[in-house]
TrEMBL record:
Protein name stated in the entry: Flp pilus assembly protein, pilin Flp
Species of the source: Ascidiaceihabitans donghaensis
Ranges that cross the membrane: 41-63
Keyword presence, Transmembrane helix: yes
Sorted UniProt keywords: Membrane, Transmembrane, Transmembrane helix
């Protein structure tokens, strides 16, 4: 019975050590992750690029409507012209 109790205590101690090591390792990882700024520059560029693309799409939408109208007006004007004059 003593051997079983000693074995159970040893297993319990190993489990606690493993949990403590895992928790300590995770805390170190989180602290290092918060301090590391290497990915921050990448995120900045991704956000900046997305903003530029968004502005380009908005500008295209605005210009495209006006260009279509101008093209139609030009077509109507040229269709009314007499080439023999």
């Amino acid at each position: 019975m003593r051997e079983r109790a000693a074995t159970d205590d040893k297993v319990e101690t190993e489990k606690n050590t493993l949990i403590l090591w895992r928790d300590t390792t995770m805390m170190k990882f989180i602290k290092n992750f918060r301090k590391d700024e290497n990915g921050a520059v990448t995120v900045d560029w991704v956000v900046l690029t997305a903003a530029v693309v968004g502005l380009a799409v908005a500008a295209y939408s605005s210009i495209e409507g006006g260009a279509s109208e101008l093209t139609a007006d030009t077509d109507t004007f040229l269709g009314k012209q007499d080439p023999n004059l």
